[in-house]
TrEMBL record:
Pfam families per the UniProt record, alphabetical: Phage_integrase
Cross-referenced InterPro entries: DNA_brk_join_enz, Integrase-like_cat_sf, Integrase_catalytic, Tyrosine_recombinase_XerCD
Record keywords, A-Z: DNA integration, DNA recombination, DNA-binding
Organism the protein comes from: Psychrobacter piechaudii
Name by which UniProt lists this protein: Phage integrase family protein
Amino acid sequence: MLKLNTPKIIDGLAKFDGRKKKYVPYPEIYNQSSEVEKLRISILSELQTLWEQLQKEYPGNIRFLKSASNFFELVAPIESLSFEFKPSSQQGFNSLQLYWSSYPSKLHYQVYERLRPLSSVGYQKFHERCNALIARKFKTKKEQKQVGVAVTDFIEFQNQHFMLAKHFYPIIHPPKPTKPNPLTVNQSWIKQGKQLNQVIRAVHDHWYQTKEYSPDEILGWLIFSGIIYGGINEGNMLRAWLAALLNKEYKPFIHQRTFISARFEYAYYGNERSEDGKTLYNTKQIIVDLVSQCWLIRYHQQVSPQKTEQTLCQLSDKTLKNHLKNALKPVLEPFDIKIPTLAKLMYYASYHWEVLDNVDIDQASVTVLRGRQNTSGLKAFNFETLLSQNYKAVKLTYELKDIIELNIHESDDTDTVITNKKKIKVRKSDLIDKLTQDFKLDKELKKKRLSYKPPTLIERIEKRCNQYKDLSERVLLHWILSLLNAKKPPSNQSILKYIKAIGYEWLYFTMAQPIEMWEEEDFETLYEDILEYKAFTRGNTDLGYSAKLFNRMHSFASNKYKFPKVSIEYSQKGRRVRSELISPQAYNAIINQILASVDLLERDMLALIFILAYRTGMRKKEILGLKFNDIEGLSQSQPSLVIRPNRYRSTKTQGSIRRVPVFALLKPDELTFFLNFIQSNIGTNPNRFIFTLSSDRQPLHDHAPLKLFKRVVKDITIKGDPAINHTFHGFRHTAITNLSMVLMGHEHLIASLTDYDEDDVLRIKYGLLGEHIDAQDHWYALAGIMGHLSPQRSFEYYNHVATLMATYELSQANIKLPTQTLNNITGFSNKTLVQNHADIDNNTISLPSIRGLLFRSINQGIRKSPIFIIEKTTAQFISDFTPITTNELFMRYGINTVEQLLCLSDKGISLKEAATILNINFDDAKTLAKRAYKVSNIINTRDKERFIKPDSVERIMLSPLKPQEQSDYRLLTHLRNNGSLLRTQYKQDWQWFMDICCQKISISKAYISFPESRIEDFKRFIGIAKQLLPEKNWLITTDAQLKDTTLNQPEYKGMRYQKNPSVSTLRIGIASREATDLSNSFTSSKNTWKYSPLFRFFVHMMLVMDESLCINESKP
């Protein structure tokens, strides 16, 4: 009888082994397969064995199967049947008929027995056993993903070959590894927590009854107190905490707190690495709790320094356990209470300290103290410097050409590299696809016998070098060539694996970026962003492999392209994060130094870069890539910055596209400074970059802020003070740390470590969180503002006060102990307690009431807690820009807003509609339009309008003639602010100055002409002009004779001068360079000057906006 073989997915790959009773792969096929194919064959064999076992145990309904006619053809593949009828005996005929009717019935039975599906219960069992098999045999995420594909293929094979469509088996999704929730607790949390409370009550009774303690017992109770009351619930941190206390490394802190900087060795995370690179250390700032302070006093009263030194030498995890056990054992055994282990005590301690009276601690901080969230503090020296070091701005003049000059690294590569300022289409992965094709083609060609010699793989890669010209592409291609040309090159398969591991991300993050000008800090930030992207977006767990490859490629680029050398932390054992904070004092000095030392045209722009970096934490590339049309809410004076990709700045992840509420993050005077700068420089084309030089339209080069920052930090550091190695990226660390304190920190920390006051705190909270500022989304809101994919990123890399915030909150706990207990531990008598204003009720003392007594007893010789006074950090220059609040129309609206109102009116839009669009009061709009009409009618002696240019139909225009040069708009901010001060302090001079401008400003060029007979008016005009702008920003034109007789006086020193023999008067106006080329303007010693139209524009707008000025429309 013919044997029936139904199709199986493992046909040709495996066979059934009757002895083992399972399917086993064919050795000759399995051994020649790749690792991925081996994994697939193995899992399919297991699944087929399991499936056939369950078919017998849980048979399903055969009506769910497709028609079996195609399987009969497998047995008897007869194309056509023909029958010839021959008369025969009745018996023979019946026999023949019986044969053809009974044989198919046996076939049907055999087929359906083989194909019988699984019942629903059987398929559920298959699902469960399949998941158990995957979890047991396959541990890595990569293997589980490949197995998941194989399982899906197996089920789809069963559906397509055997099952009716409406009875298809549902696809099994294998278990995926999920990220553990650090906020969850285990099932025994309540039970173990109640047992812990039993232990604490027994301990309190023991403290009440016992007065004498051995040194070992004191150590045990000190450890117990730190765990139960101080929140020191991580083993390494506990050991360092105890060592610092015994070694008297504690220091006084604000509001009678005592803190330590606990430095401990950690295997995979830290903020510093040993010199040999083998050991990581982490440092955290910790506030010592009150109960631990009591036991610390007892320890130093009773234990000698020699004994302490011996204890420190022997300190280890084992000794910690022994000290704790020795203290607890005699207390708990009489009550038949199980002695908790050190690990168990640390795990469940938060059950107690989370709910202490007067403690309000969030769950993220709980996970930090329990050691379930990586975070770092500052190194001890850096933290002390942050609190105490002062800075001072010095009077210097910075040559701008030294700051902005190109700093392109020389390259040994002789080929031309395309400049990154061009618009380069980001191809992302097409180069990787081409390289993959090259490697696969090379492998295939080697297997063939060809009549010609094909190009080698090296020749193909060299051809790619000629096709791809962007520097990031060339770095990758030349690195691949260096691997192929090495003396002992890796296999082609390994090189292709390298390319796929890092090539896509390298091109994605660096394409069209000026990496040839980047410094060490830029590359470190780049690799941090790439590894974060691979971890959170791509789900890569083995970041060390990618980091090592990036390290190898960067080392190659350092030699070939002179890139700065960097150390990628993931490429070594463990991960070192940079811990750095910039103090408010340093920030204040930095802004003052820039505003005092940089040229007037550029100083506001450069200062604003550092203001945004310090307050918002935006990345340098994000700030430099801002355009004016990236600002929302400008007309309502509540601006937000929208971070989105443009040709200069690409966003790394979807989370990088975000809205930054600068109206909430900037302090009021800084916001005014920001609005003034934007309003004065936006001009008519909002699709321009904000942070450009006055003579350029392109954004500043990446290196310019870094170079300026290094110079400024060096200059403001007081001689003799230690030099701090600040980086620009430190602003981001500082902003995230400061905002963490604002959102979740205690008001004492905010007042001492930041320059935010109560109003600032409320404004920031409402700006970031909305109306519900007490909700549970603080950390996610902060991560979103910073463009992080998760709060974990903020904690690991940027928040350097997480432990300090958490332990400070625990120090607020209102812990109450019997006075007898306190006397037994510390020796403080009732008289001493009463003299120190202790809060005693029914022989129970509130420990916070004797905080001062404990503080003085521990910090011997120090009577008062230090006060870290944060000076007002807003620079004086910025403070001067804060508007004076009055009921006047003057400066009620920005210059740009008023200009837009007049422009809309000129376009035929009704004044009411224009006022509504610009959010201007309609009565104010009517006043402004009326004054603008008067200004437009001011004429000269030839009946020509002085301030406007009539249109083709001789219609009176209200809008002013606008400057065209970027440098003109840069001066407008200073004219506006200095004009406001002049108007307030010298109103008569202000009116006279404007009257002269109305009468004398020229039509063709914006200057005022004074004849020699009115030299006194000229001198008065000069005196007022110098209050509006510095001397070097004014240009005087006259002939040589008048210059010699008039301009040799000291009051004209520093002003620009042009000699013109045809000019017999004294002409004065705002100076503007003729040169438009940046390099010429900074390197040429001879510049051609012209009169800037900004002068006419400024006078026009002041006449419109200042109601106190009289406008004389008659001829002069």
